[in-house]
């Protein structure tokens, strides 16, 4: 459901301590929305909350720990009673070099990026069922569009997020709940600052937040950006696999 003009929403952002999540929190608070902010490390969130004491709620949360997630839900429920828009932005990235697969690395990435999403959605049911017009959004990645070098674990986790959310929509739309999938390209964040390769069409976290908010306001099923990059990846994904992988093999170099 599209956002009503000039109406305040109650929004819960999981993974709000830096990068896209922090930029989303700042912009949504400035627009007058009530925002619950969750992360494992909440120091920066406390500073931001002090600027908007009547609009915010800080709820510490480790998405890989179901007890922690449940406590965060209880905190948000105590603050606001319900949530109009849930945005799952928690995520980590670990690369696999030269095909040297380590199951522990894959498990860590999948548990945070994908299982963490399921943990949050399951626990958040009491916050989401009280009224209509609810949105559940998750930050996937343009890496989910096609296989990219070194992204065996990260790309697989984000592809799982996209598939899960697009499928969840089939059931949730019958209940009046919207499901939105967010697929950014390269965004300058503490996470991507660790990358040791060129990042085409890199944008700021603030630009990403603007794109996400605009997409959620229009209730777009898939929000991908920047278009000059994500449309290129979508085009590549439509090519025969052999040609596609010859091209993507040189797109991101170690």
Automatic annotation (TrEMBL):
**Coiled-coil annotated spans:** none
The UniProt record lists the keyword Oxidoreductase:
yes
According to the entry, every stretch annotated as the Ketoreductase domain falls at: 9-185
PROSITE patterns in UniProt: ADH_SHORT (PS00061)
Q: Which UniProt keywords are given for this protein, alphabetically ordered?
A: Oxidoreductase
Q: Which GO terms describe its molecular function?
A: oxidoreductase activity
Entry's Gene Ontology cellular component terms? membrane
**InterPro entries named in the record:** KR_dom, NAD(P)-bd_dom_sf, Sc_DH/Rdtase_CS, SDR_fam
Superkingdom, according to UniProt?
Answer: Bacteria
The family assignment reads: Belongs to the short-chain dehydrogenases/reductases (SDR) family.
According to UniProt, the name of this protein is: Short-subunit dehydrogenase
């Amino acid at each position: 459901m599209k956002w009503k003009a000039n109406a305040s929403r109650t929004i819960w952002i999981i993974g709000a301590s830096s990068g896209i999540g922090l930029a989303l929190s700042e912009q949504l608070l400035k627009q007058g929305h009530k925002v619950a902010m969750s992360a494992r490390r909440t120091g920066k969130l406390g500073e931001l909350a002090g600027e908007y004491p009547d609009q915010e709620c800080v709820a510490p949360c480790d998405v890989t720990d179901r007890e922690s997630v449940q406590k965060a839900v209880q905190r948000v429920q105590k603050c606001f009673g319900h949530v109009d828009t849930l945005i799952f932005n928690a995520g980590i990235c670990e690369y696999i070099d030269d095909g040297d697969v380590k199951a522990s690395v894959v498990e860590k990435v999948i548990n945070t990026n994908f299982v963490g999403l399921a943990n949050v959605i399951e626990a958040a049911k009491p916050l989401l069922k009280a009224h209509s017009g609810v949105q559940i959004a998750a930050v996937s990645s343009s890496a989910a569009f096609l296989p990219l070098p070194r992204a065996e674990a990260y790309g697989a986790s984000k592809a799982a997020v996209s598939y899960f959310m697009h499928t969840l929509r089939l059931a949730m739309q019958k209940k009046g709940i919207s499901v939105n999938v967010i697929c950014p390209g390269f965004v300058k964040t503490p996470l991507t600052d660790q990358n040791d390769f060129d990042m085409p069409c890199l944008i700021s976290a603030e630009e990403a937040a603007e794109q996400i908010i605009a997409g959620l306001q229009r209730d777009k099923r898939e929000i991908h950006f920047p278009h000059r990059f994500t449309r290129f990846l979508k085009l590549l994904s439509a090519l025969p696999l052999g040609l596609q992988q010859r091209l993507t093999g040189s797109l991101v170099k170690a």
